[in-house]
Amino acid sequence: MCGWLARSVLLVVAVGISNALSFDVATIKESTSLEQDGVFRQQPGRFTVTNLSLRSIIRYAFRLREYQVVQVPSWADTRYSINATFANAAADNEQVRTMMQSLLADRFALRSHRESRTLRKYALTKARADGAFGPKLARSDVDCGKRPVAPQTCAMFETAWSIRGFTRTIPQLVQLLDEIVGSPVQDRTGLTGTFNFDLQWGKPGDVPIDPSQQTVESLASLFTALQEQLGLKLESERGPVDVLVVDHVEKPTPD
Question: Which of 29, 41, 96, 126 has the fewest CB neighbours in a 10 Å radius?
């Protein structure tokens, strides 16, 4: 097959896939709400975004962390509400995310590419030479696969100043720390199994409501609390991180 013909076939296939995974109808409006909270909601045949920033929408569509979206304009913090419908009522979450990518390309003229950049990272390790746990970290002997289980026995709760885990793994704790410190966190504790932990590095009113917007002071308190309460520590390093670079994006026309 000739090179130009092969490229044409690939283009047709790509367009067909894109059309198959696009919303049928979508309305976009800039949000005027003064509330700071927002939400994504998926229902059969419908997906809504309520009062969330374009930055958050991009993160959702491409399943990215805050630090993985770079080169966004300042207005990307503008909040939007989106009401979209689609014919396939059985579409799963990943298909809806792909539809959101199509919407961003069509309505926000988003053009982007992926690359690897050297960024700050952290490794979660044991803080004590003897490997001893801190007073707020203990192994759990609960089997979450057995029923009945008390509602809070197998769960994790997060505020802007605390993380409480019941029969949770260290990798699950790492996922939250990753979001809070705004950098990749890798588990190097070597700890397996499940644990109960109660990590607190402030009190209500001390730090921002959004856990992903910690101050320098609150992060320092977090690092100290990890060592004193859990017997763990975050060690800073630098390394390659996959990011999405926003090459171009525009404000959508309201409808």
Answer: 41
Interatomic CA distance for residues 71 and 68, integer angstroms: 10
Residue 213 binned pLDDT confidence (cut-offs 50, 70, 90)? low
What integer is the mean pLDDT of 181-189? 95
Q: Which phi and psi angles does 205 have, rounded to 5°? A: 100, -15
CA distance 96 to 42: 8
CB atoms within 10 A of CB 170: 22
Burial string for 35-46 (b: 16+ CB within 10 Å, else e) reads eeebebeeeeee
Q: How many residues does the chain have?
A: 255
Contacts of 255 (CB under 8 A, 6+ apart): 27, 28, 29
HEC-encoded secondary structure of 31-73: CCCCCCCCEEEEECCEEEEEEEEHHHHHHHHHCCCHHHEECCC
C-alpha to C-alpha distance for 32 and 78, rounded to whole angstroms: 10
Per the prediction, the chain carries an average pLDDT of: 87
Contact between 157 and 164 under an 8 Å Cβ cutoff? The reply is yes
